[in-house]
Amino acid sequence: QEVEKARQDKIIGGNLEAAAILELETNPNLSTLSDEPEVIREFFILSDLTIKPDAAATAASISRTQYDKCGRCGKDEPSIARTPEKPDLCARCADVITILEAGAASV
After folding, report:
1. pTM
2. CA nearest 78: which of 50, 98, 59, 101?
């Protein structure tokens, strides 16, 4: 709901531009969410997610991420330009392209 509201308010253009803060109240049913932030981030198709456990109430807030956009996957990632040979890619995509290029070179 918060992501859609941020999109309607023109804070973000899409989920991949979103930096979300998810505050979770103390609840055994919610505690497993904070154990898997990457899974939750991928599930909600977000570029950035911070989970704050043990909050007074469960709440979410959305802002625009400050990261650059990856030229391959479209995610706004902090790892853009960490690979000098592939400055427009995030670390994950740079690794994938490097593996694909190595495989193509061996054929």
Report:
1. 0.75
2. 50
Q: Are 24 and 51 in contact (CB under 8 A)?
A: yes
DSSP string, 50-63: EEEEEESS-EEEEE
**Three-class SS state of 8:** helix
Residue 58's contacts (CB-CB under 8 Å, 6 or more residues apart) are 23, 24, 25, 27, 30
Mind listing the pLDDT tens digit for each residue in 43-58?
Answer: 888 989 999 988 889 8
Quote the pLDDT of residue 107: 56
Among all chains, which residue has been given the structure tokens 């709440």?
A: 59
Instruction: Give me the phi and psi of 38, to 5 degrees please.
Output: -70, -35
User: Facing residues of 62 across strands?
Assistant: 20
Beta bridge partners of 25: 55
